[in-house]
Amino acid sequence: MPPLRDDYGTLLPVGGGDPIRLVKPELVIGRRPGCDVRLDFENVSGKHAYLTIINGIWHVRDGGSTNGTSVNGARLNSPHAIMPDDEVGFADHLFTIDYVPSGPEALLARHKVLDDDIIDERKRHSLMELAGLDTDTDRPARIVRPKTAPTTIERASADEVDFDDEVPEHFKSKTSPKPKKKNDDDDDDFLKLIEEEVVKPS
């Protein structure tokens, strides 16, 4: 049995209500008048649950109640440790226990919370880096480079290019001279010459 102390913490109703001092390391929670912590509600069983300190940590165990006992919304089938930020429910009545955990389990629990916080912080930074929103100015800016070289190189079409140089002479097309048009007067002179030869006396 755990050693007796003057104060083991306080059971605080979630949403307001009178706090209940926990004066023993083992407590019976229920509706019966003889319970250590009496919850006079119709949906709370006579001996609804048990609170016990084990190695400096409060644990809760359901006592076979009709409407169940839960921790952080999960209904219990076996004893469960309760940390100060946990919500323990007897039927639908929610409480937290204000106390300072002690012992090896408390140390492990605090380390687990610290580790979870570190993991969450690393995840947050990683997500911010991926989104380009990392505000950590101590880190050098990352230069994003393409992983592969471009597969095509675009060139401007001939219609888009202004050619300033003249076309070389040897590329210029050489035009053939047009044939000279035959003159009708030359034909007339030739015919006259033939006539003169024909009529010329022998």
Give your account of this protein's structure:
There is one protein chain. With 202 residues, the protein is α+β, with helices and mostly antiparallel strands. Among the domains are: 10-99, Sandwich (Tumour Suppressor Smad4); 103-136. 21% of the residues lie in helices and 21% in strands. It has helices spanning 104-130, 184-199, and strands at residues 10-13, 20-21, 26-30, 37-38, 49-54, 57-62, 69-71, 74-75, 80-82, 88-90, 93-98. The strands form 2 sheets. The chain has a 6-stranded antiparallel β-sheet, with no helix packed on it. A hairpin with a 6-residue loop joins β1 and β2. It is rod-shaped, with a radius of gyration of 52 Å. It starts with 9 loop residues before the first strand and ends with a helix. This is FHA domain-containing protein. Residues 150-189 are annotated as: Disordered. It holds the Pfam family FHA. InterPro entries: Cell_Proc_Reg/RNA_Proc, FHA_dom, SMAD_FHA_dom_sf. Residues 27-76 form the FHA domain.
